[in-house]
Specification:
Layout (H helix, E strand, L loop, with lengths): L23 H4 L7 H10 L5 H22 L3 H26 L2 H9 L4 H29 L5 H12 L1 H13 L1
């Protein structure tokens, strides 16, 4: 049994067959960043806070609800749009609180300040809570909103979901 090296060249300098699982970027020369370059790179990246996303969601929800209330005779359409937006805003606000202000986040900041694993576990946990709360709110929509307009609910959902892109885009513009 022969041992094949991960390099595309064999010990004697001849070219060998490439490993199909080897990444092209790995095969090329890779130069890690120096600590100073890493600091400069981080400074150029936008810092989008979870609370900024919640703010943009509320900023989009208010005018779209107002337009729906004014445009349609039935106030149920406006309430449906508003509730559809709340199905996204409230779970996002809870996730932002959980990741930034909860007892868990304070404990993680003190006990494991540089632990990527615990940070990732927190994101997964709070994302799961966010999804379950959003689904529960949508399931309860017909019981909470009288004469629910499903189209209005979906409009509120979609418009508020676009706040993620808006917050990202505005953060990129501010950083440059």
């Amino acid at each position: 049994m022969t041992h094949q090296t991960s390099s595309p060249h064999a010990q004697d300098g001849r070219r060998t067959a490439r490993d199909p699982w080897e990444d092209e970027a790995e095969a090329e020369d890779f130069k890690p960043l120096t600590p100073e370059e890493a600091v400069q790179w981080r400074a150029r990246q936008p810092d989008v806070s979870a609370w900024r996303v919640v703010w943009w969601q509320l900023a989009l929800l208010a005018p779209v609800t107002l337009v729906a209330m004014i445009s349609f005779e039935a106030s149920s359409v406006g309430w449906s749009v508003f509730y559809g937006g709340l199905c996204i805003v409230l779970p996002t606000a809870l996730m932002a609180y959980g990741l930034t202000s909860s007892a868990w986040s304070r404990w993680r900041g003190v006990s494991r300040p540089k632990s990527a694993g615990s940070a990732l576990a927190g994101v997964f946990f709070w994302e799961g809570v966010k999804i379950l709360l959003a689904l529960a709110m949508m399931w309860l929509a017909p019981r909470i909103v009288p004469d629910l307009s499903w189209l209005g609910l979906v409009v509120g959902l979609v418009v508020v979901l676009k706040a993620y892109w808006l917050a990202f885009w505005m953060g990129r513009r501010r950083a440059s």
